[in-house]
Design brief:
Structural class of chain B: mainly alpha
Strand order of the largest sheet of chain B: 1-2
Largest sheet of chain A: 4 strands, antiparallel
Order of helices and strands of chain B: HHEEHHHHH
CATH class of chain B: Mainly Alpha
Order of helices and strands of chain A: HEEEEEEEHH
Strand content of chain A: 15-25%
Number of helices of chain A: 3
Structural class of chain A: alpha+beta
Number of helices of chain B: 7
Shape of chain B: globular
Number of domains of chain B: 1
Distance between the termini of chain A: 45 Å
CATH topology of chain B: Arp2/3 complex 21 kDa subunit ARPC3
Largest interface: A-B, 45 and 56 residues
Helix content of chain B: over 70%
Radius of gyration of chain A: 24 Å
Strand order of the largest sheet of chain A: 4-3-6-7
Oligomer: heterodimer
CATH topology of one domain in chain A: Immunoglobulin-like
Helix content of chain A: 25-40%
Number of strands of chain A: 7
Distance between the termini of chain B: 32 Å
Chain lengths: ~180, ~200
């Protein structure tokens, strides 16, 4: 009787409930694309290989995450950059840095990448460096975005209970249908 | 993990996985007595929840698979139970994916069937202690087999088998221990209070 209780205790002590899935968080600060790779339990994913791809699938460069799961890549053109990380054991994740996130000062990317017109503040004085402002704002909101990203991944109790309810519903329906078929 | 996401495996592997899973589910449902449906539902929700609970194991963290337990208690009905659990995990939490659902189901359900057969071979209607030992072997073996199958489908999709297998099995080693202990505990309890549940059809 003790052992099942022990195992159950072990199971319950392991909250918060989270599962194993590779996640990538990436932002652009100026032309520098940086981010972190982590498993959805929160553990940093170190030594993971990745590639940076253009919208047409052309490989622009490669990445490798450091001990903290971080990586960086310098964008040279203003187009969508797709980061693909692959743990090699069936875990893979991707993140897209949209062209709009990159500074307008970079050369425009290839045809097909539809770009919104670069947002330049009007009449704010010609000496204001928009790139510097963009970089500063990006740096400021980065922790917020990271937090939001991690928050989205949390497995919540009501999701779990909802799932259990759906499972019983599905099998209840199956039992009802098969019982009806057996009745004369 | 048995949660291979979309976009990792090649199309032929996906199609074969889906076909095998469909056949397994059909077989599982065909042999399913309506009286046993609540049991399948319960095991399915246990599988669903267990894969979301994270256990710290050394540097990495793992989650229980419990497919060995499912195979022992359910037999072929483990196929529909696993399919439903994996489907909901993919839809609700984005673990795994919809296109790879078939492959993920097969990766877990075939080892489940093997564990069920192995358990009955070792147990032979013995006492709770014997059930615990047989359960530990079957539960741990099911995890190892799942890891090998994951490495296998990755290899079939053009990855190097050795690298993938080493990575997958290394991360699954601590899980094998935890899973063996858990399955043993659950089965010794079942053998004591409800041994008819372990005799295949009951």
């Amino acid at each position: 009787m003790l052992r099942p209780l022990l195992a159950l205790g072990l199971l319950l002590a392991a909250a918060p409930a989270q599962a194993h899935k590779l996640k990538v968080f990436a932002t652009a600060e100026g032309a520098w694309i940086s981010g972190t790779a982590y498993f959805s339990g929160g553990a940093k994913a170190m030594g993971i290989d990745g590639t940076v791809q253009a919208p047409d699938g052309m490989v622009l460069g490669t990445l490798k995450t450091d001990a903290g799961g971080g990586f960086g890549y310098e964008a040279r053109t203003r187009m969508d950059h797709t980061l693909i990380l692959d743990g090699g054991d069936g875990h893979a994740a991707r993140a897209v840095i949209a062209a709009a996130e990159l500074p307008a000062s970079l050369p425009e990317g290839m045809a097909g990448a539809v770009l919104p017109p670069p947002a330049r503040p009007v009449a704010a004085g010609a000496d204001i460096d928009t790139d510097a402002i963009e970089a500063a704002v990006a740096r400021q909101i980065r922790p917020l975005r990271q937090q939001l990203d991690a928050y989205e991944e949390r497995v919540r109790l009501h999701d779990l209970l909802g799932g259990v309810g759906v499972i019983f519903g599905i099998f209840g329906l199956a039992a009802w249908l098969s019982a009806r078929r057996r009745m004369p | 993990m048995a949660h291979i996401p979309d976009g990792v495996l090649s199309n032929p592997v996906l199609m074969v996985g889906a076909a095998v899973a469909a056949a397994g589910v059909a077989l599982g449902l065909k042999g399913l007595d309506p009286v046993r449906v609540p049991r399948v539902a319960m095991l399915s929700s246990v599988l669903f929840v267990a894969s979301l609970v994270h256990l710290p194991a050394g540097p990495a963290s793992v989650h229980l698979l419990l497919n060995g337990l499912a195979g022992i208690v359910l037999g072929w009905a483990a196929f529909p139970a696993l399919l439903v659990a994996l489907l909901l995990q993919a839809v609700l939490f984005g673990f795994g994916g919809l296109v790879v659902l078939g492959v993920n189901t097969v990766d877990m359900a075939l080892p489940a069937l093997a564990a069920g057969a192995l358990f009955r071979l070792l147990w032979r209607g013995g006492g709770p202690r014997r059930a615990a030992v047989a359960g530990a072997v079957a539960g741990g073996g099911a995890v190892l087999l799942t890891a090998l199958m994951v490495a296998g489908v990755l290899a079939l999709s053009g990855r190097e088998f050795e690298t993938a297998a080493r990575l997958v099995i290394l991360t699954h080693l601590p899980l094998m221990v935890v899973e063996a202990a858990f399955t043993a505990a659950a089965l010794s309890l079942l053998a004591r209070v409800k041994p008819e549940m372990l005799r295949g059809r009951g």
